[in-house]
Write a structure and sequence with these properties.
InterPro entries: Aerotolerance_reg_N, vWFA_dom_sf. The chain is of the alpha+beta class and about 600 residues long. It contains ten helices and 35 strands. It has five domains: about 90 residues, no CATH class; about 130 residues, von Willebrand factor, type A domain (Rossmann fold); about 90 residues, Immunoglobulins (Immunoglobulin-like, Sandwich), CATH 2.60.40.10; about 160 residues, Rossmann fold (3-Layer(aba) Sandwich), CATH 3.40.50; about 60 residues, Sandwich (Immunoglobulin-like), CATH 2.60.40. The strands form nine sheets. A nine-stranded mixed β-sheet has the order 18-17-19-20-27-26-25-22-23, covered by helices on one side. The protein has a five-stranded mixed β-sheet with strand order 7-6-3-8-9, covered by helices on one side. It has a five-stranded mixed β-sheet with strand order 28-34-33-30-31, with no helix packed on it. α1 runs antiparallel to α3, α3 packs antiparallel against α10 and α6 crosses α7.
């Protein structure tokens, strides 16, 4: 037998106080009676010369002392030890990955059940045991908690075995320890001393594994894939929404383990996102909804027209989500449209009708005029037009061209008052120019060169605040921002993320759904983009019976887990029985 604490023993001082109450002389009231048979007892009471009387053993006193002892013993949290050694340190690993959100019993998820079991286990061991609680969210970021109640559901995916190296390191610093792993996945503890509670269960479930779109000839083609990941046949409805507006409904009949691809065609789509939803409730609610944010900023095409400029090619290759095409002759240009045309040392006679344009060492054209300057010059940046990374730029030119700044442009590079670099927008198209051949300068040797080209590219193709707009939970989300952004905010329905900067990375966002990223530029212009986080269906939705084994049966693990039987409920029950007995005796006049 063991106890959780000894401090309640101090309450034993109340027992002498109870005995003291029974030896205090009781006061009697005079009362006339019709008989003198009681005079002997009255005489005995009047003979006492002190406030005390001889202690008389009373069943009531014995019951009261016994009740006090029972309550004191209960406060000491006694338990019967059996089933193995009790360790001084308990390391608890709680799996919080997406599959732990599966319903286990009624309205309880696997994680809820695991938390309740762990609490009971902690109650059954000594209160003096040190508990170390680790939440595994599927990433390499180990989260430690102060209590089981702090463990919350996340939606990442990952191999829980990866946490064992951390457990071993933690255990090396402890005198003796045991590990308790609560998960729904297979894990081999190896040389780690501990137990695994597997909460895997099977049942009915279907998941939306993909929802995506593309535009073809002005129409939106939508593809959705639904898979039966449960242990029985599935039937239900798939609904497609434009935001909250219902667009399409299709019935599904899926045999166990089968999937179905649905195709839709939408005309004149105007909206921010698509939503796919399964109507039927099953064991996993998170995989019944899938978001697909629609963005025009991704997959930009850039055509580089140059004889041979390795510096430019490498710089444009650094821009994310850009497909770079190259040609060495302007006459080789096809009728295919590009988001950005880069003309290096060449100026086409007929300009593209669409897309942005970057001229490098150009001649006069329909957008602006140039004047040759065959002289040495020192180029400097116009600070208010450049980012903090390029505002102090300086480089030397052997020759350059003075650009007559068009009305729609703003200069960002100058040589002695002459404009050699500008950026502007006309008729919805962005136009920029660098009035020099990069080979006739030491610009390419400066660290600012690739940064300036990158920033120009970002401005011209407007690739947006995000690299992409749709993620699976656990994916790394990079908030890249734009070159001239000064503040960023990330918002979800239930939380705002503060301290967001360009290049901020997140891989442990715990909520599924839609998020908004807001950016304010140096010119107080505000822009906003959305991204979605969806359930990682490929790794976390298998509810087939082949996932369940005898060793994973929770009911068979309960007896193994218990290190001791708490005596607190029994002692409190006996104390209540004692109180009821005392009350009955009091009513009978004992």
């Amino acid at each position: 037998m063991g106890t959780g604490s000894l401090w309640p023993l101090a309450l034993l001082i109340t027992i002498p106080l109870v005995i003291l109450l029974y030896i205090l002389k009781r006061k009697y009231r005079e009362k006339e009676v019709s008989s003198s048979l009681l005079w002997k007892e009255a005489y005995k009471n009047t003979q006492a010369n002190t406030p005390w009387e001889k202690l008389k053993v009373s069943i009531m006193m014995i019951l009261q002392i016994l009740i006090i002892l029972l309550i004191i013993f209960a406060l000491m949290s006694p338990f019967l030890k059996f089933g193995g050694k009790t360790y001084k340190n308990l390391i608890i690993v709680m799996d919080t990955t997406a599959s732990m959100s599966t319903l286990y019993e009624r309205d309880k998820t696997r994680l809820d059940e695991g938390k309740e079991m762990t609490k009971e286990y902690i109650k059954s061991i000594k209160e003096s045991t040190n508990n170390y609680i680790i939440a595994f969210n599927g990433t390499s970021n180990i989260e430690t908690k102060n209590s089981i109640d702090e463990v919350t559901q996340t939606y990442g995916s990952g191999d829980i075995s990866s946490v064992l190296s951390y457990v071993r390191s933690l255990g090396e610093g402890l005198e003796e320890y045991e590990v308790l792993v609560v998960t729904d996945k297979n894990i081999d503890l190896g040389d780690v001393n501990g137990k695994v509670i597997s909460l895997a269960n099977s049942g009915e479930n279907a998941a939306i594994t993909n929802l995506s779109h593309k535009f073809v000839e002005g129409k939106m083609k939508v593809i959705a894939t639904v898979k039966n990941t449960g242990n029985s046949d599935y039937s239900g409805d798939f609904s497609l929404y434009n935001g909250d507006e219902l667009l399409k409904v299709e019935s599904l009949d899926l045999p166990k383990g089968e999937s179905k691809t649905l195709n839709f065609e939408l005309e004149d789509f105007k909206g921010d996102y698509l939503k796919g939803e399964l109507s039927k409730k099953d064991l996993i609610s998170g995989d019944n909804t899938y978001y697909d944010v629609v963005s025009n900023n991704k997959g930009k095409k850039v055509l580089l027209v140059t004889e041979k400029n390795v510096f430019l090619e490498k710089s444009f290759n650094n821009i994310e989500n850009v497909d770079l095409y190259k040609t060495n002759d302007v006459n080789n240009m096809t009728e295919e449209d590009y988001d950005l045309y880069v003309f290096d040392n060449v100026t086409p006679e007929i300009m593209p009708k669409k897309g942005s344009i970057l001229f490098i060492n150009p001649t006069s054209n329909e957008f602006f005029k140039v004047e040759n300057k065959e002289e040495l010059g020192q180029a400097t940046g116009v600070q208010e037009e450049l980012s903090k990374y390029t505002k102090d730029i300086k480089f030397t030119l052997s020759s350059y061209k003075n650009i007559e700044l068009p009305y729609f442009g703003k200069a960002f590079l100058k040589v002695d008052g002459n404009t050699i670099g500008f950026l502007g927008e006309i008729n919805g198209r962005s136009i920029a120019a660098l009035g020099f051949d990069v080979h006739n300068s030491d610009f390419v040797l400066k660290k600012e060169f690739p940064i300036l080209v990158y920033e120009l590219g970002e401005k011209l193709i407007k690739s947006g605040i995000l690299y992409k707009n749709n993620y699976k939970a656990g994916d790394e989300i990079v908030i890249k921002g734009t070159p001239f952004g000064k503040s960023l905010k990330v918002k979800s329905l239930n939380k705002n993320y503060i301290g967001v900067t360009q290049g901020s990375r997140y891989n442990s966002i715990s909520e599924l759904g839609l998020y908004k990223v807001q950016e304010e530029s140096n010119e107080n212009e505000k822009s906003e983009e959305m991204f979605s986080i969806n359930f990682p269906t490929d790794e976390e939705t298998n509810l087939g019976e082949e996932n369940i084994g005898e060793e994973n049966n929770l009911k068979s693990e309960v007896k193994i887990l218990k290190k001791g039987l708490s005596l607190v409920p029994l002692l409190l029950m006996l104390a209540i029985i004692g109180l009821l007995t005392e009350w009955i005796l009091y009513l009978k006049g004992n």
